[in-house]
Amino acid sequence: MPPPTHAEHLAALEAEVTACRRCPRLVAWRERAARERPARYAAEAYWGRPVPGFGDPAARLLVVGLAPAANGGNRTGRVFTGDRSGDFLFAALHAAGYASQPSSRHRDDGLRLADAWVAAVVRCAPPANRPEPGERDACLPYLARELDLLTRLRVVVALGAFAWNGFRLAAAARGHRVSPAPVFGHAAEARIGPWWLLGSYHPSQQNTFTGRLTPAMLGDVLVRARDLAAG
């Protein structure tokens, strides 16, 4: 029997992620959110499981967020899909040439990523969007394994401090440590092992509605990422 292909390894990781029940608090919350749907989504069947990463297996860019939203990725089954943060992110990825369309409404809407992979540090929707440290640590092996499987990866864009620190920990689990630890900031840069790490404010409504993060600001980070990936 031939050894598993690269795509088969990624598919196996996705299957493991979507079946995960490591964190009782997150399991209870994601399943409750799937049952107690708001009126605008009352007719929809929720995913209600951990949300795997997705994109181009040959990606040189990895975009990492915090966790799926209760009525976003937890509903659609695809990270950053079906919520305002995702609208902002995918519009920027499309403008930078990484996404086939500027919005994503559901898992099978035809969106394709080229040279990019999108994932979250924590794969289940957490209460108040705040995972506990132990929940983050329980989920980090999935991100670390993505780092192993995305063999062409050169640049990571961390959306927010939680994602920035989560990536640092996943990289450290693979033997890549930097001391002192690089500090998060918008447009911050750090070299960690074989990867460039770039920071961006998270595209949450709190940031985008107040102008703390604008399309031009995120676009500049993605252009910088593209230049580093090509260098």
- Strand percentage: 5-15%
CATH-derived architecture = 3-Layer(aba) Sandwich
Share in helix: 25-40%
The profile of the biggest β sheet is:
6 strands, mixed
The CATH class turns out to be: Alpha Beta
End-to-end C-alpha gap: 39 Å
Number of separate domains: 1
What is the ordering of alpha helices and beta strands? HHEEHHEHEHEEHH
Compute the average pLDDT. Answer: 96
Poorly predicted sequence stretches spanning 5 or more consecutive residues: none
Structural class of the helix and strand makeup?
A: alpha/beta
Gyration radius (Cα, Å) is 17 Å
Q: What would the principal axes of the Cα set say about the shape?
A: globular
Q: Please list the strands of the largest sheet in the order they lie side by side.
A: 1-3-2-4-6-5
Name the CATH homologous superfamily: Uracil-DNA glycosylase-like domain
Short summary:
39% of the residues lie in helices and 12% in strands. It is of the alpha/beta class and 231 residues long. Strands 1-3-2-4-6-5 form a six-stranded mixed sheet, sandwiched between helices.
Question: Could you characterize what this model shows?
Answer:
The chain has 231 residues and is of the alpha/beta class. The chain has one domain (6-230): Uracil-DNA Glycosylase, subunit E. 39% of the residues lie in helices and 12% in strands. The protein contains 8 helices and 6 strands, in the order H-H-E-E-H-H-E-H-E-H-E-E-H-H. The protein has helices at residues 6-18, 24-35, 73-76, 84-95, 133-149, 161-173, 205-208, 215-230, and strands at 54-55, 61-65, 116-120, 155-159, 189-192, 195-200. It has a 6-stranded mixed beta sheet with strand order 1-3-2-4-6-5, sandwiched between helices. Helix 1 runs antiparallel to helix 5 and helix 5 (133-149) crosses helix 6. The protein starts with 5 loop residues before the first helix and ends with a helix.
